[in-house]
Specification:
The complex is a heterodimer of chains A (333) and B (327). With 333 residues, chain A is α/β, with parallel strands linked by helices. In chain A, 36% of the residues lie in helices and 20% in strands. Chain A folds into 2 domains: 180 residues, Rossmann fold (3-Layer(aba) Sandwich); 128 residues, Rossmann fold. In chain A, 57% of the residues are buried. Chain B has 11 helices and 8 strands. The chains are: A alpha/beta (333), B alpha/beta (327).
Chain lengths: 333, 327
C-alpha cells in the first residue's frame, strides 16, 4: 500500500480505512477491533485493512476471532453496551447473514427497547461487490435489508477521503453503523485525506454539478456515474452527481434540492434493482417533486439473479456505465 | 451432582427473601392476568425461584446479568426495583424501559440487568461482550448469562461458549435446565446426556447441580464467580430445575406426564427452603415477616403499574437513534 512516485498524495481506499481506525484508536482507548484474521500474526486482515494496528495497539484491542460471526457481533454488542466503541469486521457482506439476529434483533433495537438506558455504538465493517468472479455467496450488496431496519445506520464511501472521514464518524457515532466497503474498490486510489478530515454521517456530497439530470448513488456506483456523466457530456447532457455516502438515513434535503433543480433523476446502485434502496429514494422524490419532474425517476441496478460466477454472465448481470447512459437518454427523451 | 453442606444461615435467608419475592410476584402476575387486569404474554417462573436467587446472592449489584423472556426470577433476584419492573410489564411510562421493552426485554443497568432477549440463545454472545469489557477494564465484574436447556441446541450457544473459553472471559453461563424446550422434552431434542457435557466438549469448566437446592446452587454459583473474578475464565453451570406452569401462561403442560409433574411439585424448592430456615432456628414469625414485607412490595408495585400512565404515542420516535425521529 505504498504511494506511487507520480502521485505522492494519492492513497488506496484500503489505506484510508486503516488510517481512520488508527486515528480512532489513538483518540479513544475505548475503540477496539474484532474480526477474523485481523491481527498482524494472522495477516492483518484478509485484505490487509487492519495491518499494523495490532502492533501499535496490542492484541487486547485488535483481536483475531474464531470464524464465528454471531459471536463476533454479539461480543461487539455487549462491549458497546458498557461504553466500548467496537469495530467488528465481518469479512464479507454475505457472512452478515449468519449474524443477522445480533444485528437486527439486538444491535438495532436495544437502545429503543431499553427506553434509551443503553446504546450500541458499534461499527460493523464489511466488504462485498461483484466483478471479481467470486460468485453467489461472496459478492452480494445487501444494504437494502439493513436500511429497512430502524435503528441502524448504513454507510458506503466512494473514495479514500470519504472512506477516512466516514469510517471515523461511524466509529464515534453513538448508533450501530454498518460500514459497507467494496472489494474491487480497495485498490482504487484517490487523494489522501488530511489527518483532521471529517465527513458527517447523514450528509450527501455533490462531486459533480450539472443542470439536466441528477444521478444519485453511493459506493461503487459513483465511479460509474462519473464515467457515464463524462460520456453524456459529449452529447451535451449535463449530469449532477449526488453521492449519498450515508444510505440510511439518507440526506433527503440534498437529493430533493438537486432534483428540484434538474427536474430529472436516476438512482444507481450495484445491488439487485428489485426492492433495492433505489426504490425508496425514487419514491421519496416522486412524493415531494412529482409535478415538477420531466419524467419518472429512473433506476439502475443489477439483474434479478444471484451474482453469477462466469465472467461473461457476471458482466451481463451487473449494472454498468452503459445502463446509466441508456437510462438517462430514456428519461430525457 | 455433588451434595453440599448447608451454606450460612444469613446466605440462606438472603436466598429465601429473593426467592419468596419471585414466587409471590409470579402468583400475583398470574392472578392479575387471569382477572384481566393485565393483558400480556407471560412466561411463568414458579419452580425456578431458587436457581436465580442463589446465583444472584453470589454476585454484586454491579455485576452484569443477561437473561431471557422467562426472566422475571432472574431480574428480581438481581435486585431490579419491583415498581419499575411491574410498570414495564404493564407497558407504562414509569416502567424501566418507558414501556418500550415489555416483559421480554427488561433492561435496568442500575442493577446490572443489561439485556433481556426474546430470541433463544442470543444473549450468550452478548454476555461475552460484557465480559470482554470487564476483562479490558480490569473492573473485577462478572457477567451472569441465563438461558434454558433449549438454547443449547442453537448455534449461538456453541459460538458463544467457545469464544468465552478461548478468551477466558469472566462469564457464568447459567443453564436453567427445566427439561422442556417449549413443549418438547430434552431427551427428544438434545444429543448429549447432559448440558454439562456440551460445556466440557467446548473445553469449559462445567458443573451440574441441583438448582432447586439452595445450598448446592449457591456453592456452585460462588465457585464459578470466584473462578471468574480470579481471571480463570468462564463456567457453565447446568442447574436442574422445573417449571410448574408451562411455557407460557395458558399452556396446560399437557405434554408433561402427570407423574412427572406430581413428583416435581412434591420437590417444590420453596417449601423446602422455607423449612430449612425453620430448621436453622429462624422463627416462624421472622419468616412470616419476610413474606409479609415481600407481599407489601408487590402490592405497592402492582398498584403503581395500574395507576401509571401509558407512554404518549409519540414516544415511538424517541430512542430509535440518538436523535429523535421526525414525525
Amino acid at each position: 500500500m505504498s504511494d506511487t512516485a507520480e502521485k505522492p498524495k494519492d492513497i488506496m481506499f484500503a489505506q484510508a480505512l486503516n488510517m481512520a481506525m488508527n486515528k480512532a484508536m489513538a483518540d479513544d482507548p475505548k475503540v477496539i477491533l474484532l474480526g477474523e484474521d485481523i491481527a498482524d500474526k494472522e495477516g492483518g486482515g484478509v485484505f490487509k485493512v487492519t495491518a499494523g494496528l495490532s502492533g501499535t495497539y496490542g492484541t487486547d484491542r485488535v483481536r483475531s476471532t474464531p470464524i464465528s460471526e454471531q459471536a463476533i457481533v454479539g461480543a461487539a454488542v455487549g462491549a458497546a453496551l458498557v461504553g466500548y466503541k467496537p469495530v467488528a469486521e465481518i469479512m464479507l457482506m454475505n457472512f452478515i447473514t449468519v449474524a443477522m439476529d445480533q444485528i437486527v434483533n439486538h444491535a438495532a433495537k436495544l437502545r429503543f427497547m431499553s427506553g434509551g438506558q443503553t446504546s450500541v455504538p458499534l461499527t460493523i465493517r464489511t466488504t462485498t461487490g461483484a466483478g471479481t468472479g467470486l460468485g453467489g455467496q461472496h459478492s452480494d450488496m445487501l444494504e437494502a435489508w439493513l436500511a429497512h431496519v430502524p435503528g441502524l445506520k448504513v454507510v458506503a464511501a466512494s473514495n479514500p477521503q470519504d472512506a477516512y472521514g466516514l469510517l471515523y464518524s461511524s466509529i464515534m457515532d453513538d448508533n450501530p453503523v454498518i460500514f459497507i466497503e467494496n472489494t474491487p474498490g480497495y485498490f482504487v486510489k484517490g487523494p489522501a485525506p488530511a489527518a483532521d478530515h471529517t465527513v458527517p454521517l447523514g450528509k450527501a456530497s455533490i462531486p459533480r454539478e450539472g443542470t439536466d439530470i441528477t444521478l444519485i448513488g453511493y459506493g461503487s456506483a459513483i465511479s460509474r456515474c462519473h464515467a457515464a456523466a463524462d460520456k453524456l457530456a459529449e452529447d451535451g447532457i449535463s449530469c449532477e452527481i449526488v453521492d449519498l455516502r450515508t444510505i440510511a438515513p439518507f440526506d433527503e434535503e440534498t437529493v430533493l434540492k438537486s432534483v428540484a433543480k434538474t427536474k430529472a433523476a436516476v438512482v444507481v446502485h450495484e445491488a439487485v434493482r428489485s426492492f433495492g434502496t433505489g426504490a425508496e429514494i425514487s419514491s421519496r422524490i416522486h412524493e415531494e417533486l412529482f409535478s415538477e419532474l420531466r419524467a419518472p425517476v429512473g433506476r439502475v441496478g443489477s439483474g434479478y439473479a444471484p451474482v453469477p460466477f462466469s465472467p461473461a454472465i457476471e458482466k451481463a448481470w451487473m449494472f454498468s456505465q452503459d445502463d446509466i447512459e441508456r437510462e438517462v437518454h430514456k428519461i430525457l427523451g | 451432582m455433588a451434595s453440599t453442606d448447608m451454606v450460612d444461615k444469613d446466605v440462606l435467608v438472603d436466598i429465601f427473601t429473593r426467592a419468596d419475592l419471585i414466587m409471590q410476584s409470579d402468583i400475583k402476575f398470574r392472578q392479575m392476568i387471569g382477572a384481566g387486569q393485565l393483558q400480556i404474554v407471560y412466561y411463568p417462573v414458579r419452580g425456578q425461584e431458587v436457581v436465580s436467587s442463589a446465583m444472584m446472592a453470589a454476585v454484586n449489584q454491579d455485576d452484569y446479568l443477561v437473561t431471557i423472556y422467562r426472566g422475571l426470577h432472574d431480574q428480581l433476584a438481581k435486585g431490579i426495583p419491583s415498581k419499575e419492573l411491574w410498570a414495564e410489564f404493564a407497558g407504562k411510562m414509569t416502567g424501566t424501559c418507558k414501556g418500550k421493552g415489555g416483559p421480554m426485554h427488561i433492561t435496568h443497568p442500575a442493577t446490572g440487568v443489561m439485556v433481556t432477549t426474546g430470541i433463544v440463545g442470543s444473549g450468550i454472545p452478548i454476555a461475552n461482550g460484557l465480559g470482554l469489557a470487564s476483562q479490558l477494564e480490569k473492573d473485577g465484574k462478572v457477567t451472569v448469562c441465563c438461558f434454558g436447556d433449549g438454547a443449547t441446541n442453537i448455534g449461538a450457544f456453541h459460538e458463544g461458549l467457545n469464544m468465552a473459553q478461548i478468551w477466558k472471559l469472566p462469564v457464568i453461563f447459567l443453564c436453567q435446565n427445566n427439561l422442556y424446550g417449549e413443549h418438547t422434552h430434552m431427551r427428544d431434542t438434545t444429543g448429549s446426556a447432559s448440558i454439562k457435557q456440551r460445556g466440557e466438549g467446548l473445553g469449559m469448566r462445567s458443573v451440574q447441580v441441583n438448582g432447586n437446592d439452595a445450598s448446592a446452587m449457591y456453592t456452585a454459583a460462588k465457585e464459578a464467580v470466584d473462578h471468574a473474578r480470579a481471571g480463570n475464565g468462564p463456567t457453565l453451570i447446568e442447574a436442574m430445575t422445573f417449571r410448574f406452569h408451562g411455557h407460557l401462561l395458558g399452556d396446560t403442560s399437557h405434554y408433561i406426564p402427570k407423574e412427572e409433574m406430581e413428583q416435581a411439585k412434591k420437590d417444590d424448592p420453596m417449601p423446602i427452603l422455607r423449612q430449612q430456615l425453620l430448621d436453622l432456628q429462624i422463627s416462624e414469625a421472622d419468616v412470616a415477616a419476610i413474606e409479609a414485607k415481600n407481599a407489601a412490595i408487590i402490592e405497592e408495585a402492582a398498584q403503581f403499574a395500574l395507576d401509571s400512565d401509558y407512554p404518549p404515542g409519540d414516544e415511538y420516535r424517541i430512542d430509535v437513534l440518538d436523535v429523535e425521529i421526525a414525525a
